[in-house]
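Table 4 source record.
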Amino acid sequence: MAWRNHSTITEFILTGLSNNPHIEALLFVFFLGIYLLTVTGNLMMLLVIRTDARLHTPMYFFLSNLSFLDLCFSSVTEPKLLKDLLSEKKTISVEACLTQVFFVFFGAGTEAFLLSVMAYDRYAAICHPLLYGQVMSSQLCVRLVVASWGLASLDAFIIVLLGINLDFCEAQTIHHYICELPALFPLSCSDISITTNILLSSILLHGLGTFLPIFFSYARIISTILSISSTSGRTKAFSTCSSHLIAVTLFFGSGFLCYLMPPLGSSLDLLISLQYSVVTPLLNPLIYSLKNKEVKAAVRRTLGKYL
């Protein structure tokens, strides 16, 4: 991809999370701990699902893809954040910034697709248990995952093209800790009205296209659970999708707030961004391990083999 070279600046300056060296030192230790826990948790999920034959089912196939994605997604933003917390000058080249824009959208977009696919899997398991094996065949699962990664990469490619076509003249300071396309708009000296409309349309199409299947899947799931006569049956059915429901709420809640609310230029924007780019990849393996008896049992069996 050829970068446009008529912009007069070659790098941006990130304001980061703080300009106080003492606070930055504390934040470095804090986020280093989060990053190490995120990597460890997601690698553990991948190892457990890979080695335990009891978890070789569609649900855990999708979960392994989610863990791999969270491992990669956290590595797009957190190493740069950690480096900047130790740096006096927080700079990033225009090319590296736009590359980060691509991978941030790619990671978030793929996660939205995977969560949508996992909702359909839970719908098939709860609403059509006798046909589950036929509906969620291995071929369909692979196609759904490939489509999730492929469509997200296409959407991210379109988004980064919008960034490439921006002109940057004098302003260099990005009031953020990472490069996100909306944070680049105030720096552009070109007309961004069309770019803003395309970005908003893309986010709405992607967001609603993945959220609506989740909504309708859970509408059918709740209806089916309420029709179960026994309390124990309802509890067991709900427990199979409670982890996914928590993950959906965390991711889509922070994602919609980040991209559909107008930028406030305050610490709230940073907190919302941290929620979906840092906290969610950390919490996903914890949610699925702590709320899932099968995963907890598999973790104990796996640790027993290697310890």
